[in-house]
Amino acid sequence: MQRWRGLEDIPEDWGRSVVTIGSYDGVHRGHQLIIGRAVARARELGVPAVVVTFDPHPSEVVRPGSHPPLLAPHQRRAELMAGLGVDAVLVLPFTAEFSRLTPADFVAKVLVDKLHARVVVEGPNFRFGHKAAGNVAFLRELGTTYDYEVEVIDLYERGEAGGGEPFSSTLVRRLVAEGDVAGAMEVLGRPHRVEGVVVRGAQRGRELGFPTANLETPPHTAIPADGVYAGWLTARGEAMPAAISVGTNPQFDGTERTVEAYAIDRVGLDLYGLHVEVDFLAYLRGQEKFDSIEALLERMAADVKRARELVEEHGSSR
Hints:
single chain; Rossmann fold; Elongation Factor Tu (Ef-tu), domain 3; six-stranded antiparallel β-barrel
């Protein structure tokens, strides 16, 4: 899969393509439906499928300080899109100048002049251009001028019978913030993942017999609510069952919020300085302060036992 940053990276001899545009944070099941349709149309027409996305998130430029928690970094999104069959991802630097492009100019400069769109596939609420003035009706109207089709794909709704909230990144962020990682997994189609570099912490886990990998996460990462979770810790390509703690460690009157993962039944792991991934499968309990270290250790052992059971029940698919 080709990856471009900025319009200047697009090959000059690039031909017609099927395009879809959006932030696509998380690449959840609704996104997968839209991207999957774009890939299917591209295969039918014998042209490449291109996803156009933005960095930073447009809200941070339009309303500084309003950057939403990120469900996946761009590298992770690109990997997920490649798995769906996308041929190229174009990341457009979203600047104040870019934000002032009118919807018509956006279509002309991006979709027509550079990507030579044959088909554009979007969700029903797609907005674009200065002050989000453009919508799918206007996109379709311009298509008659510039010779491209527009397909609008409805998003899935939660629940077997429908009637719930449409799948969206906003919904996933809310579920993650509430600690409902099982609900987030339903919308994403896979567990929510937090990535980061392993750094040295207070090393209390090691002293207590449960050494943890303490993650330094990128800015704006969507981190689940404080609590203890079951999931996986992936390092050097190996996914290991894990008990995960998120919070300030009230047992020791901590103040800094951390994400720490204990690789179950693994001894002697040295992960310092490595980039690792933590996938959240299930919420076990909230953060607590115990009457004694002995009571804490007893509960930690129970957490590890339950986490091991849940991961085994779920299997290795993530």
